[in-house]
Specification:
By secondary structure, this protein is α+β, with helices and mostly antiparallel strands. It has eleven helices and eleven strands. A hairpin with a 2-residue loop joins strand 8 and strand 9.
Length: 284
């Protein structure tokens, strides 16, 4: 187990037994962070498209849609709650770090030079001289994404790996990993990202290519094809978006006449839902 994670667990176990405290100074600092988060989430500044570490890990087609000002899929009523829960968990986590006597450097703005392009971003924190991110996540993501380095790379829908690579590059520090907190259970883990120098360079080159494509206004090109659906090993004749496209805010602008339906062939009580591009079997 990571030594810092062990310190955190030890502190939380004592706190659960009412055998440890948190100073007023730490509580006040967490409260100030939370107030800023509420203002940022509920009184946001006017959004202007800009290339930044938090979006450059996404596929080029998503960036192109964003740069063109394409119509987004509206967020549902849970969106703001999910965002503020993420900010709250980060505030709580940093307070716990301090109370656990885990030394860290707090977030800072960094300039990131990629080729001839300069980006700006804000790191979450540095621990042991490495760049770390704090992520609140669903139970599924906790089990399947943050369970191993390989799983994170395979299921990195939101570009978390490239974001960490860019922050490390800009801050001139080593790559650390993610402090992941399961929103459903309160479980916590630390996942270290392992990349060779060649892999880092390759990712930075891909990011530079995306920047050039956006700045040079290259023609839009969809990066993904619809998935041919199978059920129990047989093709159904239906096609649906893959997971990356399914999470994209621009899917309705990119694909014509999407149908969000439960899998027609499934008789399960809770069948999987997909965004279908072709649906030959009608649903009730």
């Amino acid at each position: 187990m990571n030594d810092n994670l062990a310190r955190i667990f030890a502190y939380l176990e004592k706190a659960s037994a009412d055998n440890s405290t948190m100073s007023n100074e730490i509580v006040e600092e967490a409260g100030e962070y939370f107030k800023k988060a509420l203002k940022r989430q509920f009184n946001p500044e006017e959004r202007v498209f800009k290339l930044r570490p938090s979006n450059l890990g996404k596929p080029l087609c998503q960036l192109q849609m964003d740069a063109m000002g394409a119509k987004k899929q509206p967020h549902d009523s849970t969106f703001k709650m999910r965002m503020i829960l993420g900010d709250t968990i980060e505030a709580i986590f940093k307070a716990i770090l301090k109370a656990s006597n885990v030394p860290f450097e707090d977030s800072e703005k960094v300039e990131i030079q990629i080729g001839d392009h300069t980006l700006t971003g804000e790191t979450d924190l540095y621990i042991d001289g490495k760049v770390d991110d704090v992520k609140s996540c669903s139970a599924w993501a906790y089990r399947h994404k943050f369970s191993s380095d390989a799983n994170m790379k395979e299921h990195d829908t939101f570009g978390y790996v490239d974001q960490l690579v860019m922050y490390a590059h800009g801050s001139k520090k080593d790559i650390g990993g993610w402090w992941a907190i399961n929103k459903a259970t309160g479980e916590m883990t630390y996942l270290e990202l392992e990349l060779t120098e060649e892999e880092k360079e390759e990712r930075l080159n891909v990011i530079e290519d995306k920047i050039k494509a956006i700045k040079n206004k290259l023609p839009f090109k969809r990066n993904f094809k619809a998935v041919e659906e199978t059920f129990r090993g047989k093709k159904t004749g239906n096609r649906h978006l893959n997971k990356t496209c399914g999470f994209c805010e621009y899917k309705n602008s990119c694909w014509d006449d999407l149908k969000h339906r439960p899998q027609p062939a499934s008789s399960a009580v809770n069948p999987p839902w997909h965004y279908y591009t072709e649906l030959v079997e009608a649903t009730a």
